[in-house]
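[Automated response] Your request has been received and processed.

Submitted sequence:
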Amino acid sequence: MTYAYQSEVWPTTDLSPVIRQDGYGLVNAGVIWNVNDAWTLSLQGTNLTDEEYRTTGYNIAAYGVLTGFYGPPRQYSLMARYDF
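Generated structure:
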């Protein structure tokens, strides 16, 4: 299990408060199970609290452009591996 915290972010050089991102934390976790010499199972999860956060954005007021790009939502993955 991991926890990562990002403090407040101003994603543009003009320090626009419109796209400022407050601090946020992300929780990720996973388990790996070696069933036997051949089989391995893995369950992984990212952003388990389903935090909504901006990674970057642009505020180009002269052109009326205001955009924000967000990080991925909660995601899970399940893997089965067989070695022969």
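Summary generated for your ticket: Residues 20 and 28 are 24 Å apart (CA to CA). The chain has one domain: 2-82.
If you did not submit this request, please reply to this message.
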